[in-house]
Amino acid sequence: MSSQNSGPSGLLSLRHSAEHVLTQAMLRLYGPNKFFMAMGPATDDGFYFDFEPVNGFKVSEDDFPKIESEIQKIISESLPITKKELTLAEAKKLFADNPYKLDWLNAIKNRDEKIIVFYTGSDFFDLCAGPHVTSTDQIGAVKLLSVAGAYWHGNEKNKMLTRIYGTAFPSQKELDDYLHNIEEAKKRDHRQIGKNLDLFSIDDYVGPGLVLWHPKLSIVREEIETYWRQEHRRHGYQYVYTPHVGLANLWQKSGHLDFFHAGMYPPMSMASKDPDDQNNYYVKPMSCPFHIQIYKSRPRSYRELPIRWCELGSVYRYEESGVLHGMLRVRGFTQDDAHIVCREDQFIDEVNRILDFALEMNRTLGFSQLNTYLSVRDLESKSTKYVGENRVWELAESTLEKILTDRQISFRKDVGGAKFYGPAIDLKAVDSMGREWQGTTIQLDMNLPARFGMIYTGQDGQEHTPIMLHRTLLGSMERFVGTLIEHFAGAFPVWLSPVQAEIIPITDNQNDYAQKIASVLNDQGIRVEIDDKSETMQNKIRNATAQKIPYMLIIGAREAASETVSVRQRDGQDLGTMSINEFIAKVKEQITTKSLNLIK
Ligand SMILES: [Zn+2]
Ligand SMILES: [Zn+2]
After folding, report:
1. CB-CB contact of 398 with 421 (8 Å)
2. Interval 218-230 mean pLDDT
3. pLDDT per residue over 397-435, tens digit each?
4. Would you tell me how many other CB atoms lie within 10 Å of the CB of residue 551?
C-alpha cells in the first residue's frame, strides 16, 4: 500500500480509520439499536472500540470472522473519509440519543476545541478530529484480536462497557509478522509460564498486585539477591535495613504526602488502639526518608563521603487496578534500592560508577542491550508538579546530560519522565523479543537533602548540604524476575535454575543409584530432583524438558554398573555418557561463571 501509511503517524491515521470502519461494519451488521458508540482510539499497536451494548446485544470472538469480512467489504468499497466542523448545537442534535457523545461534546466545549465530525461514505459519521486516511482502501489489513470489559474513562465508578481490540497494518505481510510476534510473546507470557512451572501466584484473598513467590521462583530470587549483595559489597556499598511503616510527619517532610499521595496506601490510624495516640502511619512507598534519618542520626564529616547505602527494600504503591499486570505492574515490591550521599566534587564520579555497575549487573543477568533515556521535566504539563527551584533543576538536567555525552552513550530524552524531586538516567533492558523493560534508574535529588536538613562539615569547617542519588539497578525483584521469565521463556541460566539436574532412573532397579547421585550432587551445591515416578523414560524426559530443567541425568543398568550418567540437555542435545565427577566439574564451572549457555 501507499508509503504514507508506513511511518508512525501514518500508522496512527490508518488504525484510527480502521477502528471507525469496525464501528461502521458493526452498525451494518447489527443495526443502530444494539449499541451506543462510546470511544475508539488508535494505540501503539492497534486500536480499540468501546461501546455500551443494549437490548440484549452481545459480541464474542466467535463473531469476529463475520465482522472482519464486513470490514474488508467497506475497505474494498474505497469510501472517501471526509470531515466537517459543526457548531455545538448542530453536533448535539446529531448525537442527541448517544449519552457518550454528548459527554464528549461537553468535554470538547470545555477545552474550547473545534467540534469535528467525519463521514465515511455518505451514511456513517462519528465525532473525531482524526488523523484519518482519506479513503477506506488505504487501510490495508485489519484483524480483530479480543473482547474485554472496560469502564467508561477507565473509572471503576462508571458503567462497564464492551471493548473490542484490533490492529491494522498497511499490508497483510506486516499484519502476519505482527500476529506471529504476538504468538511468540504469548508463549513467553510470565503469567502463563509462572503457572506451568509453579513459580508464583497472585491470590484474590491476599489482594491484587501482591505477589506470592513459590519455592522455585524464590530460589531464582535468592540467587540474584546473593549475587547482588556480593557485588554491592565489592562496589563499596553498605547494607541497611529499615521499617515498612513510618509516621505521617516523615512523609509530610519528605514531600510524599504532597507530591506522591495518589501512589500511597491510605494511612493507618492508631487512635482505635490507643486513644492518646493520634498519629497516622503510612506503609512506605520508598525507603529514602529512612536512609536520610540514618544519615542524620549523628554529625557527618566530608571525610565520610561518599556514603553508599543499599537495601532490598519492600515498598507498597497503590497502582490503579486496570494497570496491574502479573509481576510486572504490582502494588507491593522489593526495590534493589540504594542512596548515595556525596559532595558536589564527587557527584559525577558516583554517577559514572553506578552506570558501570548497572551495565555489568544487567549483562551478567542476561541483558546485554540497554537503551538509555534521560528523564527530564515536562514543562508544558500543568498536571505534574515538581518540587524545587527551576535553576537547580536546569543544572541537574544538564549535568546528567553531560555525563552521558562524555561517555558517548546515545540516549533519548523522556520528557515528563522525571520524578517530582529530580531528573534521572534510565536504562531499559531489551529482551529477546526486542521489547524494552524499565530496569536501572539513577535519580539525582537536589531537593530532599535540603528539605531534611542533611549536612556535613566540610574541609573548611563549615556546614554544607550534600548531594543525594537514588538508584536501583534492577528496579524491583518482582518486575525484574517477571521480565527474566519472559526473556528466557522460563529456561533460566543454569546458576539461576530452580532445579539444575533431573535424575531419571529408567527402572526402579536404578533408584538406589539415583539416590546416591542425588546426594553427591547435593553435597556439591547442585540442585537436583529425582523423577522416580512409574512412567516411561520418554515421558520423564518430556516432563523435565517442559519444566525447563537444564540437565537430565538418565541412568539405566549400564550407567549404574559403571558409575556414570547419560546427560541430556533441555534443548534436546545428547551429551553422551560421562562420570559423575566430570558432570559436576562442568556444571560447577557454569554456576561459578554465571554462564548464560548450556554445556554444549
Ligand atoms: Zn478517528
Ligand atoms: Zn530513594
Report:
1. no
2. 98
3. 999 999 999 999 999 999 998 988 889 999 999 988 888
4. 26
Residue 259 forms part of a structural domain: no
Give the ligand with the smallest distance to the CA of 16.
1
324 in any annotated domain: yes
CA 528 – CA 16 distance, rounded (Å): 54
Contact 475, 329 (CB under 8 A): no
C-alpha 550 – ligand 1 centre gap (Å): 50
Do both 438 and 514 map to the same domain? no
What Rg, from alpha-carbon coordinates, does the chain have?
29
Which of 431, 441, 556 shows the shortest CA–CA distance to 505? 556
What CATH number did the domain enclosing 342 receive?
3.30.930.10
Q: What spacing in Å lies between the alpha carbon of 17 and ligand 1's midpoint?
A: 6
Please report which confidence band the pLDDT of residue 502 belongs to, taking 50, 70 and 90 as the band edges. very high
54 is in which domain, residue-wise?
Answer: 3-187
Whether 431 and 512 map to the same domain: the answer is: no
* Paired residues of 554 in beta bridges: 504, 566
Question: What ligand is nearest to the CA atom of residue 291?
Answer: 2
**Ligand nearest to the backbone CA of 422:** 2
Q: Which of 340, 351, 347 is nearest to 407 (CA)?
A: 351
591 three-state secondary structure? helix
Q: Strands 238-239 and 307-316, how do they pair? A: parallel
471 and 502 in a single domain? The answer is no
Ligand 2 centroid distance, CA of 384 (Å): 19
Of 252, 276, 280, 278, which Cα lies nearest the Cα of 266?
280
Asked if residue 409 belongs to a domain, the reply is yes
CA of 132 to the centre of ligand 1 (A): 6
Cβ atoms < 10 Å from Cβ of 107: 11
Of the CA atoms within 13 Å of residue 398, those in its CB half-sphere come to 6
Asked whether residue 32 falls in the same domain as residue 179, the answer is yes
Render the burial of 263-301: b for 16+ CB within 10 Å, e for the rest.
ebeebeeeeeeeeeeeebbbbbbbbbbbbbeebeeeebe
Distance CA 299, CA 482 (A): 42
Task: Judge whether 13 lies within some domain.
Answer: yes
Same domain, 546 and 477: no
Query: Same domain for 480 and 517?
Result: no
Helix (H) or strand (E) holding 573: none
Measured CA distances, 304 to 83, 292, 294, 307 (Å): 67, 15, 14, 7
Q: Which ligand is nearest to the CA of 315?
A: 2
- The pTM of the full predicted model, rounded to 2 decimals, is 0.79
| Total number of domains constituting the chain | 3
203, three cell numbers: 491470590
**Whether 15 and 71 share a structural domain:** yes
Judgement on whether residues 483 and 517 belong to the same structural domain of the protein: no
Q: Which CATH number covers residue 40?
A: 3.30.980.10
Q: If DSSP codes are grouped into helix, strand and coil, which group holds residue 376?
A: strand
pLDDT band at 244 (very low <50, low <70, confident <90, very high): very high
pLDDT (tens digit, 9 = 90+) per residue, 245-270?
999 999 999 988 888 888 999 999 88
